[in-house]
Amino acid sequence: MKNKLTMWILVAMVLGILTGYIIHEQAAPETIASFSKNIKLLGTIFIRLVKTIIAPLVFTTLVVGIAKLGDMKTVGRVGGKAMVWFISATWVSLLVGMVLVNFFKPGSYIDLSQADTAGLKDLMGKTQEFSVQKFIEHLVPSSIVEAMATNEVLQIVLFSVMFGVAAAALGEKAKPVIHAFDAIAHIVLKLVEYVMNFAPFGVFGTLAAVVAEKGLGVFQFYFIYFGYFVLGIATLWVIMLSVGYFILGKRIKSLVQHIGNPLLIAFSTTSSEAVFPKLTEELERFGCKNKIVSFILPLGYSFNLDGSMMYMTFASLAIAQAYGIDLPLGQQFAMLLVLMLTSKGVAGVPRASLIVVLATCAMFKIPPEGVALILPIDHFCDMFRTGTNVLGNALATSVVSKWEGELGPERTEI
C-alpha cells in the first residue's frame, strides 16, 4: 500500500507538470487564470483535510507523551536534548546559506526586470512587526480553542505540555483521561490513512496550477540562483545525513525509507503541515517511542525548520547582491542571529520564510522590494526547503530517541 501511494504521487507530479505546461503554452491568459484557480482547489482540499487532523493529533499525542515521560525532570532532560539539536541544526543551516551566497554570489545573476510586484503586495500585507511582544503572543495562547481553530502549533504545544505535566502530577487519578486521549490519537492516525489516499490529487492540482501560471520559462532567468540554492540544500542533506549516520548508524537508511512518503508529499505540496500526521506514524514504525515522537515532533515544527533557515540567509544576501549592496562579515553574522530569533514567531504563517526575509531586509537597509525578485521562483525553492524541514525533524526525533535509549526495533504496526 505504501509503495503504491508513492508511485501514484510520482505519477501525479509528472502529470501535474505536463498538464500545467500544456495549458500554459496553449490556452489564453484568462483561461490559464481560471484553470489555475480551479485546479488548485484539489491541493486546497487535501491541505484542509490534513489541517483538520493536526490540532487533535498534536494535543492528544503530546499530552499522552508528557504523561508517559512521568515527571518534570524527564521532560526537562528530553526537551533540553531536543533544543541542543535544534539550535545546532539552525546555526549550521544558516551558515551553509551564508557561505554559499558569499562564494557563488547568485544574486548578481538575478534579472531585476523579472520582479513579481503583485506577489510582493500580497506578502507586504502579511508582514508582521517582529518584537518580543509579537513572539510572546505567538507563543502563549489566549484560548486553546482559538489556537486549535487556527492550527497555531506552538500555542497548542505549550498548552499540551502544561496539561500533560499536570496529568502526570495527578498520577492514578488522571489515568482514565490519558487512556482516552491515547485512544483518540490512534483514531486520528487511522484517519490519516484515509486522508493520504487523496494525496495524489492534491499533488496534481498544486503542481498543475503553478506550472500553468508560471510556465517552465521561470527557470530561464533564475537557473543559476535556483541551481546554487539546490546545491545548498544538497550540502545541508549531506551534513544532516552524515551526523545522522554517526548517531544512528546503518539505521539511517531505514529512516529515510520510512519517511519517503512524507518527504514526497511535503516536496510536492510545499506544506510541512500536510505530512505531520503521516510523519508521526512513520517515526513510530521506525522504532521511536510514542512519548518521544509526540513531544519532539511538534516542537520541531516551530523550532527546527532547517531548509527554511538556510533559504532565509541565502535569499536575504542574494537580494543584497542583486542591488550591489556589500554587507561586511560582522553584519552578516548579526543577520544570522536576527533570522534565528525572528523566524520562531512566524512558523504558522503562509510563506513564512519570505515574510521573515522581507522584514530582515528592511532592518539591514536592503530594499525589501527585492523580495519581488525571488517570488517567481519561490514555489520551486519552497518544495526543496519544505522537504528538508521534514528530514530535519525526522532526524531530530530519531536522534533524541537514541540519546534517551528509547529507539526500539522497527515495527509494522503502531
Characterize the structure shown.
This protein is mostly helical and 414 residues long. It has one domain (67-174, 218-403): Sodium:dicarboxylate symporter (Proton glutamate symport protein, Orthogonal Bundle), CATH 1.10.3860. The chain is 79% helix and 0% strand. It is built from 18 helices and no strands. It has helices spanning 2-26, 29-69, 72-104, 117-126, 132-139, 144-149, 153-170, 175-196, 199-214, 218-248, 251-258, 260-269, 276-286, 290-303, 306-322, 329-342, 352-363, 371-403. The chain is globular, with a radius of gyration of 21 Å. The two termini are 16 Å apart.
Percent of residues in helices comes to over 70%
Class by SSE composition: mainly alpha
The CATH architecture would be Orthogonal Bundle
Shape: globular
Written as H for each helix and E for each strand, in order along the chain, the element string is HHHHHHHHHHHHHHHHHH
The level-1 CATH class: Mainly Alpha
Number of helices: 18
Number of domains: 1
Topology:
Elements: H1 2-26, H2 29-69, H3 72-104, H4 117-126, H5 132-139, H6 144-149, H7 153-170, H8 175-196, H9 199-214, H10 218-248, H11 251-258, H12 260-269, H13 276-286, H14 290-303, H15 306-322, H16 329-342, H17 352-363, H18 371-403
Features:
single chain, 414 residues, mainly alpha, Proton glutamate symport protein, 18 helices, 79% helix, globular
Quick overview of this protein structure:
The protein is an all-alpha fold and 414 residues long. 79% of the residues lie in helices and 0% in strands.
